[in-house]
Write a structure and sequence with these properties.
45% helix; alpha+beta; 3 domains; seven-stranded mixed beta sheet
Length: 312
């Protein structure tokens, strides 16, 4: 089975620094669903501590498919350029078009590479990663939560009471990201700037530089199919590591342990397709779906039903 491998060996040290491989059936699935790519590195997979770049696609029912993997010596421009060049080579060989959308976290070297390799693709940042970063870096600028045992509940057994200033900061940050017009964004930015200056400065200098990749006003101007986060790829990381079991194997050991993973993934996709083709959901038993009911994913048809309901 040809896993479409490629490698880069440092000519001075003779050390293998980059290794790319992709399962041919995963590439065949990606060729059918080339619109959305998710990219993210995972760690602690091998004894050489090489980051593992996971490249995933999203198929028509919003399921994430592991498409290609790349071991890298680091996360610099050259590493990502080589990785994406190998992936583009596979795409070219299979006549796969450039993706409509790419979603990543704020890895600047990867962002620069994607802008160069996919100039016609829309690139947005994962809002989940952004919010986690804002939480980690801005919480220290506000008073700590208080504790009131009389306010304890099953969901909050210690009775923690969030600091109101911190709660308002998070609320206004969420509203800012959810702005849908230029005027709304400008107005909400003025409100957001009333909060602690050091926290606001961090957010503006770190994240609002990329507002076109974050705020709904600009993100919704591109076709993103509702995919605005890379959290599905985190689940893929977890499944891969479940197959690895240990983080001390060499690269061949990692590859050998992952060999059972791809057939399992592809069998699940085939089974899912067969079920949707042969068993019609009661909600989809509509006369206007007669010509497409066995050809289109249920997810798309359910979205059409939602739009039809809005007509009334």
């Amino acid at each position: 089975m040809n896993f479409k491998p490629a490698k880069y060996t440092n000519p001075q040290t003779g050390r293998l620094e980059r290794l790319f491989f992709a399962h041919p059936e995963a590439i065949a699935i990606y060729k059918q669903h080339p619109d959305v790519l998710l990219l993210d590195c995972t760690y602690k997979t091998n004894r050489f501590r090489m980051p593992l770049l996971n490249i995933c696609s999203v198929i028509g029912n919003r399921k994430t498919v592991q498409t290609a993997l790349v071991f890298l010596s680091g996360e610099k421009d050259g590493d990502y350029e080589w990785a994406i060049e190998q992936f583009c080579g596979v795409m070219e060989g299979e006549s796969i078009s450039e993706p409509l959308l790419v979603v990543t976290d704020r890895e600047l070297a990867l962002m620069n590479t994607l802008d160069a390799q996919f100039p016609n693709s829309n690139h947005i940042l994962c809002t989940w990663h952004v919010n986690m970063n804002v939480l980690a870096n801005c919480r220290k600028h506000y008073p700590a939560d208080t504790k009131d045992p009389t306010k304890a509940t099953s969901a909050n057994p210690h009775g923690y009471i969030p600091d109101p200033e911190w709660s308002n900061f998070l609320k206004d940050w969420a509203h800012l990201l959810d702005s849908t017009t230029d005027a709304e964004y400008t107005k909400r930015l003025v409100q957001f700037r009333t909060h602690a200056k050091v926290a606001v400065a961090y957010v503006e200098n770190t994240w609002l530089l990329w507002k076109e990749k974050l705020v709904r006003r600009w993100v919704d101007a591109c076709l993103h199919f509702g995919v605005r986060v890379t959290s599905p790829i985190e689940g893929c990381h977890a499944v891969l590591k479940a197959y690895l079991q240990v983080s001390t194997s060499d690269l061949k050991g990692v590859f050998d342990r992952l060999l059972p993973y791809w057939p399992t993934q592809h069998l699940a996709i085939r089974d899912m397709r067969a079920i949707e083709q042969n068993k019609v959901m009661h909600r989809l038993n509509k006369r206007y779906f007669d010509l497409v009911i066995h050809l289109v994913y249920n997810k798309a048809l359910l979205l059409i039903i939602q739009q039809c309901a809005m007509l009334h």
